[in-house]
Each structure stands twice: as structure tokens, then as C-alpha cells.
């Protein structure tokens, strides 16, 4: 089983969007049993909250489920529970490495994509949930292809 954790700052916009998109892609390929997928934030401000209303609306627009998704902070327990830590920006990478250690694979989602951007902009500040959706879809599609080969 491949254990994948998507990470952003508050775990209400980008990482839950990536989690939901990746789950949807995995389900479409009938690979659900091969993956454990979750998301977390490097800050615990929104612990226990549902994803941001913009994230929920955008995922609903594409008929992607967010059932059972609630914000949670990244913890040291995640170090043992996950193999892949997929971050949305450089700050997330730095904070994730500080929490889970240097021995784990910590990458930026867009490092896998065919995109000029290296970081997924935070729609909490930009308001552009469509851009976030498209970037997460591109990165998650490439991530799934990479992990299918691993």
C-alpha cells in the first residue's frame, strides 16, 4: 500500500482539494485498495473544520466527493503512517521536513507536473479556486502515474 499525505498551511483549501482529486483519480482507476490518502496542515488553526466553502463548491462542480474530510494538523505520528508527503509550496516543504524529518520523501506537488509554476497559489488569499483545481488535477495526475510505476 502507498500512503500519501497532501500538505498545505491550514488544511482547508489546497491540500483537501488535492486529496479529494487524488482519491477520485485512484477510484476511477480502481486502485483504492492500493492507496491510503489523507491531508493535513502545517498549522492547526482550522482543526476539525470542513474544507473551505470555495474548495467544497469547486469540487462539487466537478462531482468530486469531500465526504469525511476535516482539517487536521500534521503531526510526528504522520512520519510513520505515510510514505509520501506532497506539499503545495516551499514553506509547506520546509515545515513538513521539520516535523517528519529529512529521511521521508517530501516533494512539491507541481514538481511532478508540466507547469511553469512550482507552487500552488493559496486560494484562501487569491480567491481563484479554479486555478487551484486545475493545478492540483495536473499534479495529482502525474503523481498517480509516478506511484503506479513505483
Uncertain runs with pLDDT below 50, 5 residues or more?
none
Q: What's the Cα radius of gyration?
A: 14 Å
Largest sheet: 4 strands, parallel
- Order of strands, widest sheet: 2-1-3-4
CATH superfamily: Response regulator
Strand percent estimate: 5-15%
Number of strands: 4
Q: Helix/strand-derived class?
A: alpha/beta
By CATH, the architecture is named 3-Layer(aba) Sandwich
Q: Give the H and E element order.
A: EHEHHEHEHH
Percent of residues in helices: 40-55%
CATH overall fold name: Rossmann fold
Number of domains: 1
Description:
The chain is 43% helix and 15% strand. It is of the alpha/beta class and 150 residues long. The protein has a single domain (2-149), classed as Response regulator (Rossmann fold). Strand 1, helix 1 and strand 2 form a beta-alpha-beta unit. The longest helix has 21 residues, at 129-149.
Question: What is the strand and helix layout of this fold?
Answer:
Blueprint: E1 2-8, H1 14-28, E2 35-41, H2 53-61, H3 77-81, E3 84-87, H4 90-100, E4 105-108, H5 123-126, H6 129-149
Parallel strand pairs: 1-2, 1-3, 3-4
Helix pairs in contact: 1-6
Protein traits:
single chain, 150 residues, alpha/beta, Rossmann fold, four-stranded parallel beta sheet, 6 helices
Can you give me a brief rundown of this structure?
The chain is of the alpha/beta class and 150 residues long.
Amino acid at each position: 500500500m502507498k500512503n500519501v499525505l497532501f500538505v498545505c498551511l491550514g488544511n482547508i483549501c489546497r491540500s483537501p482539494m488535492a486529496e479529494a482529486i487524488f482519491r477520485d483519480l485512484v477510484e476511477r482507476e480502481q486502485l483504492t485498495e492500493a492507496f491510503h490518502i489523507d491531508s493535513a496542515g502545517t498549522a492547526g488553526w482550522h482543526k476539525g473544520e470542513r474544507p473551505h466553502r470555495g474548495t467544497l463548491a469547486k469540487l462539487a462542480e466537478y462531482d468530486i466527493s469531500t465526504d469525511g474530510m476535516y482539517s487536521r494538523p500534521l503531526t510526528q505520528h504522520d512520519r510513520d503512517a505515510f510514505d509520501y508527503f506532497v506539499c503545495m509550496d516551499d514553506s509547506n516543504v520546509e515545515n513538513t521536513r521539520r516535523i517528519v524529518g529529512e529521511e521521508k520523501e517530501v516533494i512539491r506537488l507541481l514538481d511532478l507536473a508540466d507547469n511553469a509554476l512550482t507552487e500552488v497559489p493559496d486560494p484562501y488569499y487569491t480567491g481563484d479556486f479554479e486555478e487551484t483545481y486545475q493545478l492540483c488535477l495536473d499534479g495529482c495526475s502525474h503523481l498517480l502515474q509516478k506511484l503506479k510505476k513505483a
